[in-house]
Amino acid sequence: MKYLQPHNLAFIILLGALSLVTPFSVDMNLPALPLLARDLGISAIDAAHTIGIFMLGYGMGPLFCGPMSDHFGRRPLLLFSLCLYVLASIGATFASGFSALIGFRLLQGLMAGAVVTMPSAIIRDSFEGKDGAKKQSLLTVMIILGPLLAPVIGAAILNFGNWRTIYGVLAGFAATLIVATGLLLPETLRHHHRSPKVTNLLHRYGAVLKDKVFTITMVCLSLNFAGMFAYISSSPVIFIQERGTDSGLFSLFFALTASGLMAGSWVNTYLIHKNIAPVVILRCATSIGFLAATCFFLLASTGHATVAGIIGSVVVFNLCGGLIFPTATHKGLENLANAAGSGSALLRSTTVLMGGISSVIVPLLGHHDAAWGAATVMIVCATCNVVIIYLTRHVLADKPDQTG
Q1: DSSP for 98-153?
Q2: What is the CATH number of the domain that holds 311?
Q3: Fewest C-beta in 10 Å: which of 140, 149, 210, 320?
Q4: Tell me: the pLDDT tens digits for 317-350?
Q5: pLDDT at position 120, please?
Q6: Helix axes 278-301, 393-403, angle to 10 degrees
Q7: Rounded to an integer, what is the distance from CA 268 to the centroid of its chain?
Q8: Number of folded domains in the chain?
Q9: At CB < 8 A and 24+ separation, what contacts does 7-11 make?
Q10: Is the pLDDT of residue 399 over 60?
Q11: What domain range is 70 assigned to?
Q12: Domain contains 1
């Protein structure tokens, strides 16, 4: 069987499927957390740690695998990481206790972080300029299917199984990706773009961070993800515990808010087609995101954070995220032909780090009101993003002006 060609739609769909590993690993488990806590005899906070420890591994995995993929290529790292992910998922399925489950979730996160680093690097390997930006937007649309589908799938699985069944399904999904990657995905990193050796990690990442455009977009992505994850991590508390929503309705609410990301990605594709400059997209998206975060914060601060108000504010905030993610990712990796794996890894790790920090801060701020805690983190992140993009607009505009 011949490998897929980069301009084939199935090529982007496969990359999107690989990118679903992380949202499936996180969001499919959200409806099952109360059952997990009851089954293992642990608190709700301890059950939530299965998400946090996964995100810790997810943040660490790309830092090591990104530079290795710049040397060995994308395919070997993908296949190796997927195989270990399957083993970790099987281990979680049959975990005898909470400690064992935590260990397998950490390994799951490490390997998921390595897997989802590759698609953006592969797009950078395969496409240039405007074409690359369009493909990155299409990939983002695929990625967003994860948060839309995962809670619904998780809730459906609970109708005939339990939290262990979810991990079994994750193992089967990853095994399918191993077969598809092995049979269909070509190696996209050309030999003349490979690093001659796996160099010192600090030196490698230091060289990447010298690119000002990359650093700016990395900060922009990290702040936006921190704001989004403030809502994601607290959403079960906001809806299920504080507003009495059942798991099925919670999955619907979660899908509605995540739909904003997909809408933003489609709008981004249209704007690229109309030759709207990336810096203009980023300025508009961060400004509107700030207004959405402000609305959520005012509702939460005045005690009027109804379900409709929360969903409306977060949908608009996420729509702006759907504009920011593909634009900033493509813009950041544009100058890194010889280090796209390392750059993509650094983008992933820093966004996850900021997401992890925000998920820790939200419970501290919103001990008695999770909505207020999430809204506070969101408005702080959105404010910083508006200021940074405005102050660095000339740096971000340099590349488009030079390439004409």
Answers
A1: HHHHHHHHHHHHHHHHHHHHHHHHHHHHH--HHHHHHHHHHHHHHHHHHHHHHHHH
A2: 1.20.1250.20
A3: 210
A4: 999 998 998 889 888 888 876 677 778 888 888 8
A5: 82
A6: 150
A7: 17
A8: 1
A9: 10/184, 11/185
A10: no
A11: 9-403
A12: no
